[in-house]
Specification:
The structure is a single chain. This protein has one domain. It contains four helices and no strands.
């Protein structure tokens, strides 16, 4: 039984990580790497500041990675992944809009002093 289980697991892992590789899987990994980079920039910015911060590059990596992963999810036809990435993209863009609005507000306030 253990031999059959290990053979089945080995066959599954071979299929997922070796046999199914194509350009779409590579694109998916590229998107995931891009998406993961946002955590690295957030962590480094927080370490430098000595407090938790979210730099602009976090949102840019979020949009880049989320967009590539959404394309990948659409190709794969995965509704869970499609909805998750679609909602995430909306949130990332909205955060950039809020950041832009705040920066414009600061410029207006600075001009009044």
């Amino acid at each position: 039984m253990l031999v059959e289980l290990s053979q089945a697991a080995g066959g599954y892992l071979h299929h997922v990580f070796v046999a199914s590789w194509d350009g779409w899987v590579i694109l998916g990994f590229f998107g995931q790497a891009f998406f993961t980079a946002r955590f690295l920039v957030q962590w480094l910015a927080s370490e430098r500041a000595g407090r938790s911060v979210i730099p602009l590059s976090f949102w840019l990596f979020s949009i880049g990675g989320g967009s590539v992963l959404l394309v990948y999810a659409l190709y794969r036809g995965d509704p869970v992944f499609i909805l998750g990435q679609g909602l995430g993209l909306f949130i990332y863009v909205r955060n950039l809009m809020l950041i832009r609005r705040d920066k414009r507000g600061l410029r207006v306030d600075e001009g009044r002093h």
